[in-house]
Amino acid sequence: MKRSRFDTEYELFCEIEHWKAAKEVVAPEMMMSPDERLFGLFFYLYTQTKELYGELPRRKNGENPFIHPLNVALNLQKAGVTDAVTLCAGLIHDYVEEVVDIYKAKEGIEEDAKGIRQLDAYEKVVVKSLEEKLRSFAKREKIEVAVVWEIIGITKLLTRHKRDFYYKSIIGIFQCPDERMRKKAIQVKLADRIHNILCIETFTEQQRLFQCFKNLFLLNNVKVYLMEKKGVMKKEENRREKKLLGDNVTEKLFKKCGKATYDAFLYVCYRSLDKKIGAVTSMIQLAFRKFVLERRGLWEVTVVNRREMHPLRLFQGVIRRYDARLHHQWKIHDLMKAEELAYCGRFFLDFKFMPEQIMAIVEYKDAYAFKEAVAYLLYSPEYMIGRFSYQKLFRKVE
Fold it and tell me: CA within 20 to 30 Å of 74's CA: 5, 110, 113, 195, which one?
């Protein structure tokens, strides 16, 4: 009798369980086999990164900052990454940004036009220094220089320049013309955001929502990327090429990042209920269902109809306010937030909610809608959020 891929329920659980963050520093041998040809390079980057992170303050949750790059490498490993270059890039994905931030703090540089030019210039110095270190090590250990260029190339893709908003840094990854490098950078970014979202326990609800929203943008674009890859695979007849185009690792990281983000949104919902708004949550949930069913899916959540009086209006443009925050369009963000708070105050007048409860209602409906969008991304094969992909936003961030 043909055996199932999963022989027991527990094996299935181990396959689909939500990942947890490692809390203790792990040895390099735990992330890459010492028998790997490039283990020496990985070990070198491990020690360089550990030394750098020793200069940084504790993370917001009180943890050793070195925990973060280690978790990124561990997440890649758990997803099935065996490529040494990708694991090395995961270890140093924030290296350039951290060195620039240390310089910025020491020199007291402001992020105004003059300061950003200064920091951008220093970033080039940091990248060049890192290149020289890796080339020197590679030459000494007889490692091909192409390995160094690939690690540096991926690191550059993952480095957010001070002059750029979050969107532009992400868009740069997806527009990389080198498919091999693009895939590896996407995998590292997903592994990075998985750990980031698992470490927001000390954040306020607004901070949690904003961090989760950044994940939602990444997830939506990875979904577009995976859909495009599958489209290519359907047209490709050569079996060898199909194997090369297969991307199970990226898909697994996408799913684990989606689940971690869903959990974080769900936690905001739970926290909002502590403000005693439970009497209206079913109305909010049903308004969301009405919104989705009337539009035959959650395809468009960026357009606002201010004439709409039904509470489903709370889900129109739900992405637009956070989008404005990412672009630092504070007037648009604050106006939309004020309109939502005012609407909830009028609509739920009978409940005599206090201002903090009205805020909790808005946070609840945001988290509820976003977690549902994540579920659609995970489980609806053709689903993506319209007008929220890197192709649509490219011109906007130029």
Answer: 5
Expressed in angstroms, the distance from the first to the final Cα of the chain is: 58
Contacts of range 332-339, beta carbons closer than 8 Å, 24 or more positions apart = 336/304, 337/362, 339/306
Q: With contact defined as beta carbons under 8 Å apart, do 368 and 359 qualify? A: no
347's tokens: 């609509």
Count the helices and strands in the chain (H runs, E runs).
17, 0
pLDDT tens digits, residue range 294-318? 765 565 555 556 676 787 778 777 7
Go through the chain and tell me how many residues it has: 398
Instruction: Say yes or no to pLDDT of 223 above 70.
Output: yes
Checking if the pLDDT of 397 tops 50, the result is: no
* pLDDT tens figures, 71-101: 999 999 999 999 999 999 999 999 999 999 9
Q: Would you say residue 17 has pLDDT above 70? A: yes
Over range 326-341, report the average pLDDT.
88
What is the SS3 assignment for 398? coil
Amino acid in position 256: K
* Distance (Å, whole) CA 155 – CA 96: 8
- Report the C-alpha gap between 335 and 327 in whole angstroms: 15
What is the torsional sign of CA 381, 382, 385, 391?
A: positive
Look up the pTM and report it: 0.90
